[in-house]
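Morning. Coffee machine broken again, so started the prediction first thing and wrote up yesterday's gels while waiting. Chain of 171 residues, entered below exactly as on the submission form.
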Amino acid sequence: MIIELVPLDEGLYDGTAVGLLDGRPLVYVGRTAHVDGRELAHGDIAEALVEAVNVAASKILGPEWSKPLAAVTGLNARTCNRDRIQRWGLPPWVLVLLARGAASEHPRALGHMLMAVASLRGGIAPLKHGSRVDAVVGKKARSLVEDASELVEWARKQRRLPGSQDPETES
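Came back before lunch.
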C-alpha cells in the first residue's frame, strides 16, 4: 500500500482530497479516510500514511520536520511526531498543506518561508480580526523577503573572484 500526498482538484470529492492511495484518490470525510467511497480504518493505512507524511514533510521542512510542522500548523509538537501520526493520523488540512507544499517548484525554500511566516505570526499579539493579523504578517514577510534578497545579493558581490587582488573582499 502506497500513499502519495499530492494536490488534487478541490470540489470533485465529498470530503477533503489529500492525495492518492495506490493511485486512487484518498479522501477524508472528517477524520475518516475513504477510497472509492469505501471507509478505511486508520490502522489499515497508518504505516503508509506515516511514510507519505515523511516524504512530503522532508521535502518541505527537512529531515527533522516534526517540530517545524508543529510551528507552521500551530498543532501541539507531540501531535506531529511520527508515533502519534502512526496512532492517530493528522487532520486532513495538514495533509493538504503537505501535498501542496511538496508539489511546489521549490519545496525547501517554501518550507523556510513557512517557518518565517510562522515565526512572524507567533511574534504578533493577537488582534480582534484574523484578517488584520494576516495583513500585518504579510506586509512584514514581504519586507523581510526584500531585505533577505538584498543581503544575499550584497554578500555574493563581496566574494572576491579567484585570482582577484582586491583587499576589500575575501573568497
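The two ends are 51 Å apart (CA to CA). Going to sketch it on the whiteboard this afternoon.
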